[in-house]
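This part of the workshop introduces the protein records we will be handling. The structure tokens are whole numbers drawn from a learned vocabulary of backbone shapes. The record below serves as our worked example for the rest of this section.

===
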Amino acid sequence: METLEAFYQRIAKPLPQNLENGIGHFNVFTRQECAQIPYSRKDYFKITFLKGKHKVHYADKTLQSDHFALMFSDPLVPYSWESLDGKKCGYFCIFTEAFFHHYGTLRSYPLYRPEHPKLFLLSDESAHEVETIFEKMLLEMNSDYAYKDDLLRAKTLELIHIALKMQPASIAAEAQSDKKRKIDTLFNELLERQFPITSPYERLELKNPSDFARLLNIHPNHLNRTLKELSEKTTTERIAERVLEEAKILLKHSSWSVSDIAYALGYEESAHFIHFFKKKLNQTPQNYRLLQNV
């Protein structure tokens, strides 16, 4: 996952002094200031105004814009884009969820649900409206107005509402193998973002194939077939393999009780966790911990 620090390093810009001041972060740029982005998740939200011909890869989808488009990105799902005409025109803004603290919940908007479309094609009139908003954002960023953050939040919400009134872009034709690869990548991203577990009060949120399929907006059987084809392991096996790895780490490097570890890994009953662990390693969690600490 790309952090804000890594983002500023990638575009060769100095790190803002207020990045870790606890009130969230916001910034706006022209697209000429940013290099090609890798297919990955980013640890921040982003809204991009694309001008020209582009192909956008988002989760397991590929979408194409031939003129103007508005793209919404968030930390849950990896994405990238490629220019089809060599142009890098437009604007983008980046912000953290904390920037909207006490000003509404970003996740309450459909745009920031994993299954919702993210690319919206713009008419000439809508493109002019969106471009004007970004130009005003740039002016506010360079002003010394005491309440400019409120104006920037309002402009961001305006972009969100413009998109919510529109129809999303159609999914472009794409090679079946690329779709499968992206499903596999996204599944792994969703799985890995739950780890490491650093507190016994944390708990695994995505525990079974249907949880992942729901976020990926595909049928559990389709997810299972795709993962089995690419990795020769079922969805359940991939999840169990990662859970077992985390269980071994916690048993070796933490002082948590077996019941605390079982709870953190999503087990309602520690007996079920002990049965799972013994089935995989032919020894109980307690015996594994003792052998590791010898």
